[in-house]
Amino acid sequence: MFYRLLIGFFLSNLDVTIVSSALTSITDDLEGFEKRSWIITGYLATYTGSMAIWTKVSDIVGRKQTTIAALVILLAFSFGCGFAQTVDQLIIFRALQGIGGAGTYALTILCVYEIAPKTKLPIYSSLMSFCLVFASLIGPIVGGALAENSAWRWTFFVNAPLCVIAIVVIIVAMPKHFGLDQHTPSFRTRASYRSFANLDIMGSLLIMAGSFLIVAVLNETNLAFTWSSRDAIALLVLTGVSWIAFFAWEWYISGIPGKDPIFPKRWLFDRPWLGILISSFVIGAPYNVVLVYVPQQAQLLLDKSPLDSGIYLIGYSAVAAVAAAIVNIASARGRIPFIYTLLVGCTIHTVGVGLLSTIATSRGFHATDIGYLVIAGTGLGLTMGILVLSTPYIVEDRDLAIATGTVVQLRFLGGAIGLAIASNILNGRLAHRLQGVMSSHELHLFLENVKSIKSLSPHLQEVAKNVLASSFNTQLLVMIGFAAAQLPATLLLLKAGRQLAASRHSSMSSE
């Protein structure tokens, strides 16, 4: 059943990456280049807010029924995205699509943790890590190929046959009561009002509100309003209130018997687990920014096709996939503590992101630049592989369902915030540095359809490309900070004596 579950797992990751190389074509066709970031961050924001609640619902309804529901939502709104006629419609459908993607992703990992004995978890985790990063490899290439042939809508329609296959396979192969013990009451009893009343709906709404608000202020500032405007200040205040309310609420309900918080209070006192959560959050930003903006850089600065721009990412994603698979197996067979592998991985990743920040200013891709992508991909794979593997070895069994959703939830939240920051940098640079150089009509047209750069005079084309290049450079310079933040987060795993590790035995520590 493991390999059947990987279909849905692959799909939920593919939806994040397949639009990266097609993003310019999509927004130019729908005349909304300035809103390009929302197409991905809208998906990631709902992905983040709904992931934990899916795993808790599956404890009540059952893994099989919940996984099928997630796939149906993913399928329905994939069609909505494909038929969208405006950028705003696409953003709305992408946000709804993210709800289904979140359930598919989190439930697949949870099911794998439950079917795999601890002795074989490293092997299963290595295959999941490989599948995750392979989606990052194939997504931009498929998206680029479709966009190049003016068929970007198929980046969403391609979900249809895979979703149908996954649904049929789960209906046939997954036991009805999978994930529920033999003494579990009937479905009618499990699905009672009291059971659902124990779900942390308020916590999910608060985290979704906080995610959307921070993404909104970053995406829209420098585009719709300035940082000093009342709109920006109001959004920042609401963002702060949402996150403070979230943690206050989680602290409060953690003390109520029968309640199931999505972030239990005891996690705040579990130092190794906090290290994993923070690492997952900060790695999400550079991971998504590289996937989205390296293809855009190739298309806008080097006039490469969407397909060619997707191919540039092979060195990044392919190496990450291999590194993730290898590190999981090596961690178990060599009983290597998680902290050591994470320290090596995040160091390599930080160096790689730093090197990538020099590509944009060179205004060209060279052999050394591919090497930079390989270095960053190696560090990414080592780190992400361990983050997937470590969860069942660190958290208590009672927290496995919610922890599975949370560790991934934070990576996508980091990705959404990272992309919003990158979008803010690019939009701000374009608006401020091209204002006065271009006419208001030329600037408006450029922000709606970036391909209009070809209609500008050679001098204006050069000016616009210089602004784009410096913006891409600054984006990755900021991402160095996120990548480097993995180092202090990883040190939270440090313990006196034995260090946390996977092994071929059920023990969760290693000398």
- Round the Cα radius of gyration to an integer and report it: 22 Å
Distance between the termini: 34 Å
Series of H and E elements:
HHHHHHHHHHHHHHHHHHHHHHEE
- Count of DSSP strands: 2
Mean pLDDT: 83
Sheet with the most strands, sense and barrel status: 2 strands, antiparallel
What is the CATH homology-level superfamily? MFS general substrate transporter like domains
Q: Report low-confidence residues grouped into runs of 5 or more.
A: 504-511
Highlighted features:
511 residues, mainly alpha, Growth Hormone, Chain: A, two-stranded antiparallel ribbon, 22 helices, 75% helix
What does this 3D model show about the protein?
This protein is an all-alpha fold. It has a single domain (2-510), classed as Growth Hormone, Chain: A (Up-down Bundle), CATH 1.20.1250. 75% of the residues lie in helices and 1% in strands. It has 22 helices and two strands. It has helices at residues 2-17, 23-29, 36-61, 63-82, 87-115, 121-148, 154-157, 159-173, 187-190, 193-197, 201-220, 230-253, 271-302, 306-311, 314-333, 338-356, 359-362, 367-394, 400-434, 440-448, 458-484, 486-491, and strands spanning 499-500, 509-510. A two-stranded antiparallel sheet has the order 1-2. The radius of gyration is 22 Å and the shape is globular. The two termini are 34 Å apart. The model is unreliable at 504-511 (pLDDT under 50). GO terms for molecular function: transmembrane transporter activity. This is Major facilitator superfamily (MFS) profile domain-containing protein. Keywords: Membrane, Signal, Transmembrane, Transmembrane helix. Residues 1-21 form the signal peptide. InterPro entries: MFS, MFS_dom, MFS_trans_sf.
